[in-house]
Amino acid sequence: QVQLVESGGGLVQAGGSLRLSCAASGRTFSNAAMGWFRQAPGKEREFVAALTWGGLSTYYADSVKGRFIMSRDNAKKTVSLQMNSLKPEDTAVYYCAANNRGLYSNPRLYEYWGQGTQVTVSS
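^ that's the sequence the OP posted. Answer follows.
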């Protein structure tokens, strides 16, 4: 079992920045993936970024590439999402997720989820 606790989020003007963090507890594996997803009202949950605890690569959705940076701290079992140049269309509830299978962008392949944190970008 993996428990995920998110922090960060809030209200920011377009062009601003926010940082989300997610602390994982429980057993994790080097090939396990951590991902960030988001869900706007009336829309499906969509992939934002993901990495593995033991890997070197981070993957991003095209919509956030060049603006968002996902990082990890293996010792603290924490991942973060630095969001820069925010746009109103980034407004959504952001979720941290984990699995023990590897890197996927499909949210159905993640077993563990945080409670979500609201990010609102005003124009």
